[in-house]
Amino acid sequence: MTAPVPAVGSPAPDFTLPSTGAAPLTLSSLRGRNVLLAFFPLAFTSTCTQELCDMRDDWDQFASADTVVVPISVDSAPTLGEFRKQLGLQADMLSDFRRDVSRQYGVLLEERFFSNRAYFLIDREGIIRWAHVEETPGTKRTNGEIMERIRALA
């Protein structure tokens, strides 16, 4: 069963997921830096490809704001690894293949068995400072809007 979306001002629920990097990633290991969790529905789909290419193209803006971008989808780690390679993405991507984290964050579309597009901006202490879940998986926020949210953390 999918939980409600965690409230702004509450601690970000911790998790560990397989990564396209060398080892699984645990959210709490990123404390001390801002973190943008970016849930996206499925690799190799048009809106997801555009969104991640936009993030790739603006990578330096996220890095200069001391923000780790953590894309998460229900795709398998090997699928995400290929997606990352084909797009030349800098970010390691996380595989929520069992859908546990999507449920924990209240973004799993149970009837479609993938997550909705959603963003959670977590501050250096692990507190959610901004959360946005799209009305439909086919829409996305712009990096400009996301960067405004990140700048507001300073």
Mean pLDDT equals 94
Radius of gyration from the alpha-carbon trace, in angstroms = 14 Å
Which CATH class is shown?
Alpha Beta
- Give the structural class: alpha/beta
Number of helices: 5
Helix percentage: 25-40%
Main beta sheet: 5 strands, mixed
CATH architecture: 3-Layer(aba) Sandwich
Low-confidence stretches: none
What string gives the helices and strands in order? EEEHHEHEHEEEEH
Corresponding CATH superfamily: Glutaredoxin
| Beta-strand percent range | 15-25%
CATH topological fold name: Glutaredoxin
Count of individual domains? 1
| First and last CA, distance | 36 Å
Count of beta strands: 9
List the strand order in the largest sheet. Answer: 5-4-3-8-9
Which descriptor suits the 3D outline? globular
Task: Tell me what you see in this structure.
The chain has 154 residues and is an alpha/beta fold. It has one domain (39-151): Glutaredoxin. The protein has five helices and nine strands, in the order E-E-E-H-H-E-H-E-H-E-E-E-E-H. The protein has a five-stranded mixed beta sheet. It has a two-stranded antiparallel sheet with strand order 1-2. The longest helix is centred in the middle third of the chain and has 12 residues, at 46-57. The mean pLDDT is 94.
Descriptive labels:
154 residues, alpha/beta, five-stranded mixed beta sheet, two-stranded antiparallel sheet
